[in-house]
């Protein structure tokens, strides 16, 4: 999937991405970059609203997994299970979000678990950058199940992956 195709997909299927003026800068199998302006993501301090930052980071991480699965012909329904967002400095203008897998082996482990168990989890990291500096970081765990299985994560069930 190229950046234009992903951009169209996000705007058609995730209305918040269009409202926040998210645009896809680049896509590769192991990383993805999104960009967004301060407006309409501004808060009362004239910086990016924390909820917008977290939303864009989640969209970036989810999109990387979605694209990798699509391009690799790996079927599965993906949802976020949990995430942690850390803020380092205010964002006062257009910013980028760089998503990647948390470890070099994460993708292979994810595909193996999904293929053998019909379910898997994987951790992705999304870093927000503004003015050449790291402004925030999201670490998110995503759960996938093969088609036909429920996608709602059950916190009591342990999913290897």
SSE arrangement:
Layout: H1 3-13, H2 15-19, E1 23-27, E2 31-36, H3 50-71, E3 77-87, E4 95-101, H4 106-117, E5 119-130, E6 133-145
Antiparallel strand pairs: 1-2, 2-4, 3-6, 4-5, 5-6
List its salient traits.
single chain; six-stranded antiparallel sheet; 161 residues; 4 helices; alpha+beta
Description:
The protein has one domain: Roll (Thiol Ester Dehydrase, Chain A), CATH 3.10.129. The C terminus is likely disordered. The chain contains 4 helices and 6 strands. The protein is an alpha+beta fold. The two termini are 25 Å apart. It is globular, with a radius of gyration of 16 Å. Strands 1-2-4-5-6-3 form a 6-stranded antiparallel β-sheet.
Which superfamily, in CATH terms, is the homologous superfamily?
Hotdog Thioesterase
| Secondary structure: helix percent | 25-40%
Note the beta-strand portion. Answer: 25-35%
Number of helices: 4
């Amino acid at each position: 999937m190229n950046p234009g195709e992903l951009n169209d997909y996000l705007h058609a299927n995730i209305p918040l991405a269009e409202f926040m003026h998210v645009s896809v800068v680049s896509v590769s199998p192991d990383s993805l970059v999104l960009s967004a302006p301060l407006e309409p993501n501004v808060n009362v301090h004239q910086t990016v609203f924390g909820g917008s930052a977290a939303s864009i980071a989640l969209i970036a991480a989810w999109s990387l997994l979605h694209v990798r699965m699509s391009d690799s012909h790996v079927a599965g329904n993906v949802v976020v299970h949990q995430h942690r967002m850390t803020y380092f400095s205010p964002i006062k203008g257009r910013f980028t979000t760089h998503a990647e897998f948390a470890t070099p082996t994460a993708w292979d482990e994810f595909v193996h678990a999904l293929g053998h168990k019909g379910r898997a989890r994987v951790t992705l990291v999304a870093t927000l950058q503004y003015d050449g500096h790291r402004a925030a970081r999201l670490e998110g765990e995503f759960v996938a199940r093969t088609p036909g299985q429920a996608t709602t994560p059950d916190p009591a069930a342990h999913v290897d992956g």
